[in-house]
Amino acid sequence: MLDPLVQYVMNEKNSNRFEILRLLAVAGSQGDQLNEAARAALEMAAHSVGLVAAAIHLWDDDSKGTVSLSYAENEPAQEQLVSLEEGLFDNLRQERQLLSAYMSFGGERPRHSFTLPLRQGNKVFGAVIGLQEGDRTIVSEDTFLEALSALLALTYAAQGAAASIPATQDLVDKERLAAIIETAVAVNHEVNNPLTAILGNVQLLLMKSEELDAPLAEKLRTIEASAMKIRDVTQRLMRMTNPKTVEYTNGTKMLDISGDDEESE
């Protein structure tokens, strides 16, 4: 169900520029229906500025499209705008780092087009583009169009902020510890069962050590000690609260499970 403000502008075709900006601001603050609000604002802006077609394109860090919203008075206008985006603007962004441009094209009926970036700081994550026909020029509308693109950028960036904010070191540490504990549980489950069998049988044999020759009894004690060390390692993994890495060899790191921290505590 559409937000009442979106329904209002779509039904009334209100071209008041304040309403266009208010629509986006409200949608951004509410955190939902943003694409519907952006589509409505795009159509309102097209009526206000006299565009025959307009579009909003968003892309990810790999320049792959994630959102594409468009408005056009007719199919030829839509096709012209798509051709401008794919054949000109996108290429200039990729090859020439184009951010913004206002262009005019001659012919029987002059055409004017623009592209403006959606950006957050130095990161450009989208663009607003438009197409106008006739003698009127959109360069005279640059202040409003730049305000529109800036507000679109703010609202989309705000809605996607939670997903794009880098994880804090505290969160990274917690996730790392959780992964170690999960591994420790798996190790305990898979290792402790056969380990228990090994220890049980070795200790049963050692109960009869007087019946065994000395070298064999010594080997059994070595097996028992090694099995106990394995059990201690799995237990230290389970108790780990501050995981650290140490140098292993050739630049390879390994998890420190020596237990030195526990002993110092």
Number of helices: 9
What distance lies between the first and last C-alpha atoms, to the nearest angstrom? 59 Å
- Helix/strand-derived class? alpha+beta
At the third CATH level, what is the topology name of the largest domain? Answer: Beta-Lactamase
Largest sheet: 5 strands, antiparallel
CATH superfamily label of the largest domain: GAF domain
Overall number of structural domains: 2
Summarize model confidence as the mean pLDDT.
81
Q: Mind telling me which CATH architecture of the largest domain this is?
A: 2-Layer Sandwich
Describe the structure.
57% of the residues lie in helices and 19% in strands. The radius of gyration is 33 Å and the shape is rod-shaped. The two termini are 59 Å apart. The model is unreliable at 1-14 and 161-167 (pLDDT under 50). The protein folds into two domains: 4-164, GAF domain (Beta-Lactamase); 169-264. It is built from nine helices and seven strands. The protein has helices spanning 4-12, 17-30, 34-49, 75-96, 142-159, 161-164, 169-206, 214-239, 260-264; strands at 53-59, 65-72, 101-105, 111-120, 123-133, 245-249, 252-255. The protein has 265 residues and is α+β, with helices and mostly antiparallel strands. 22% of the residues are buried.
Task: Please describe the topology of this protein.
Layout lengths: L3 H9 L4 H14 L3 H16 L3 E7 L5 E8 L2 H22 L4 E5 L5 E10 L2 E11 L8 H18 L1 H4 L4 H38 L7 H26 L5 E5 L2 E4 L4 H5 L1
Antiparallel strand pairs: 1-2, 1-5, 3-4, 4-5, 6-7
Q: Which terms would index this structure?
A:
265 residues, 5-stranded antiparallel sheet, 2 domains, Beta-Lactamase, rod-shaped, disordered N terminus, alpha+beta, 19% strand
